[in-house]
């Protein structure tokens, strides 16, 4: 299965026929710029191209009233003056004789994409459409939007394909109030929107765009609004807009209108990642803005761990053509399975963003069990509530916008000048086994590596280790070294290598030292199972960072920077770009009690592999320091981003295949997809196959039924937050609610 790209050139036919500065930014070039960007980077050719069809009027009727559909049908026969008069009855809308046709194509493209994903013809996809749809309501056009494509697609997915739960993720500078109104009483659709709000001073100026708008009736708790309230910044950049993905086959939408330029945007990559990790993903697992284009790739990659990777994205907004093109390309690369490039900028959420996230958690706590389970209930911060009385809107012609416009465009130009899409390595995934296995089934394009390092190189690295003296272990080490070289020189993106069980720890030791000697400045090592820490790696010596997590069959684990004293093979020196008073971060997951002796020494109890936190949010996704070590997202400490991730599944690791796959999938983000997985040569071909598929860009398999962590485990994690927050800034988004697991409720 691949990635679909749905498009029809007729969607460029509708255009503004009169002068209107507010509406002229919604132009046909938005689609052509996005498509040309995909073509220039060779991404269109890698997708399955589908020609959009018109949606039937019956399909439009899944959301819109017959009278409204008839009104739009009638616009085909109207003259320019009549179209202008009709457009004036709506907010920020223009009609054209071809609008009805274009809007039906936009809906049809979304429906085609859902059908293709649900029937297994493709794994995921993107629909390039216009006009947009998320502001349109049952009987009203609004904000450039005519028919609500995503809402119609959601109902279509439920009706035709029997889906019981649909997640709509609406990332846009403006709130998609039309989609919210349509599903606000429907518990089968979880609607998540982040948007600029400015305490109701930003279009569409609605009270129901705030965090405390959580749905109605049976839909209480299934509308999640994350309003950004302090977006104006001293050095603003406008947000690049990307397609809006939706989960469990559901695309989304959204433009960014009301202002030709949205200056002063202060929300950055850290704010968006924090929102995903502490609001959206917890809810999903239970049941204008400085986001750079590469951030959209990371967000899309995170979404793909849900719903078996069935993600439908619908492009509806985006009005700066160059940034739109960049963001679309980043999203399509992520959908195709390409690794996401490292995030730029410090990963420190803004204070206003933290307040907004905390307000969302407080508003949702009554409806989500895990938030209720976490002791002291969070409260809405007064600073995040909309001010009383009529707000003073931020007008596109006002002094705040005009003063920042020049800075905005200069900052954007600088950003785009520096942005470079990471080229895809010639080989995305390679597998190096000690012996061929007839039962092993690998995805197309995965390379079976047979080559090995030179004998003298193997022997030099193996000399300090008795476990590598055997011919079998030495042969396996040679393949590991060769694969590691290919990873570090950009020829291979990720790999899997087998090694004899007794030699796993020694091979991991060599891989760490070899990586450092070949120029890697930071290594993230995740060692799972009964693996001893390599010798001589606990003393200061290297200035590079190696963070290691290990987990035994008994639930013990630790994360610590291994800073070796010296390399027994080479004498390469390394320069550290981090300036911290201490270099050791020790996270013991599975200790007897929760404790934080220091910021860099943390002990966390963890239940057995088969339940609790491991089942609910696999492998400590809700463990405070896990995300801050770069496993889920880059951390505050110098924006720690490893050059290489080493994953070692040692003896008695105890992980089921889906758990190992999810762990590996989440680890693709921090190092731009550079992941080397070391496995026991006795591992089943099924494990090798699932890891290869995940590293190749496919979604991890489902973990099965969700289960909650115990109250004792949650309380232990919560007690750790206070001592850690001052250093680990990404932790602060947890607020009073702590770090929790949320269960998606399913209505009867």
From TrEMBL:
<feature type="region of interest" description="Disordered">
    <location>
        <begin position="235"/>
        <end position="256"/>
    </location>
</feature>
<dbReference type="InterPro" id="IPR023801">
    <property type="entry name" value="His_deacetylse_dom"/>
</dbReference>
<dbReference type="GO" id="GO:0019213">
    <property type="term" value="F:deacetylase activity"/>
</dbReference>
<dbReference type="InterPro" id="IPR023696">
    <property type="entry name" value="Ureohydrolase_dom_sf"/>
</dbReference>
<dbReference type="InterPro" id="IPR037138">
    <property type="entry name" value="His_deacetylse_dom_sf"/>
</dbReference>
<feature type="domain" description="Histone deacetylase">
    <location>
        <begin position="25"/>
        <end position="230"/>
    </location>
</feature>
<dbReference type="InterPro" id="IPR000286">
    <property type="entry name" value="HDACs"/>
</dbReference>
<feature type="compositionally biased region" description="Pro residues">
    <location>
        <begin position="235"/>
        <end position="248"/>
    </location>
</feature>
<protein>
    <submittedName>
        <fullName>Histone deacetylase 10</fullName>
    </submittedName>
</protein>
<dbReference type="GO" id="GO:0040029">
    <property type="term" value="P:epigenetic regulation of gene expression"/>
</dbReference>
<dbReference type="Pfam" id="PF00850">
    <property type="entry name" value="Hist_deacetyl"/>
</dbReference>
